[in-house]
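Ticket #4471: structure export looks truncated?
Reporter: QA, pipeline team
Priority: medium

Steps to reproduce: submit the single chain below to the structure queue and open the exported record.
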Amino acid sequence: MKKILVPTDFSDQAEKALEVAAQLAKQYNSEIYLLNVLDLPLHEVDALKGYNNLPEAVFFMKLAHKKFEDLLKKDYLEGITVYETVEFHDIYKAVNTVCEKHDIDLIIMGSHGTSGFKELLIGSNTEKVVRTSNTPVLVVKKRHTTFKVEHFVFASDFKEESKVPFLKALKFAELFEAEMHLLMVVTANKFVTTSEAKDRIQGFLETVTHSFCTIHIYNDETIETGIMNFSQSIDADLIGMSTHGRQGLSHFFNGSISEDLVNHARRPVITFKI
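Actual output as written to the record:
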């Protein structure tokens, strides 16, 4: 893990993500890329053929640079190589652009989490990134004086399409030297026998050598609550999931368990794109 991207709006939540990134950067000798996204009227920019001719763009770029300067003075960033960048796209497009350009290994974001009608109407920037990013996204909700992962829950239905995300998650478990708890939540609507569930999970383990994996079948009313309840029962440090990246009407009607967890789970969540 050599390059970590931290999108920031210079809020307290974003700084919590940066603090975790700094800890990981020091531990794994990584570089940090700080990204600030400016929300400007793109039709005006296109008409002028460039951001440099738009007074608002110049003003907000200077303001962002000043905030970057103040942020880089933080003690916890001492000794870490930090790059700053400003983009004008929608946040998920900006994140994807920076990830591709710099070959980013991990995105770390802060999130307040939302609920109810507000969540339905506007969602969150973090949720949009989780839905669209090809790079793993780690979402943190609180300040971590010491970010340590000893118990890592990877929740899945363990069907064939989830194997690639599983292998990505496995690399992080090995990196963190964490015990990996492979979890399948069974609900009344999506019933699977214990025998079939264990066979699915065991099929994933046949091709790996990681020796710190445990298998868990957990029953609950919904998959989301099952993941959170199981994670609480073992005091997990991190929850991992795959995401389909659904958009538009498909996302509206089907939803996404990984995005719901990002919004509702109190523990850090890391997502991997299928």
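Status: closed, not a bug. The export was complete when the record was re-opened. Leaving a note from the reviewer for reference: Confidence is low (pLDDT under 50) at residues 115-123, 248-255.
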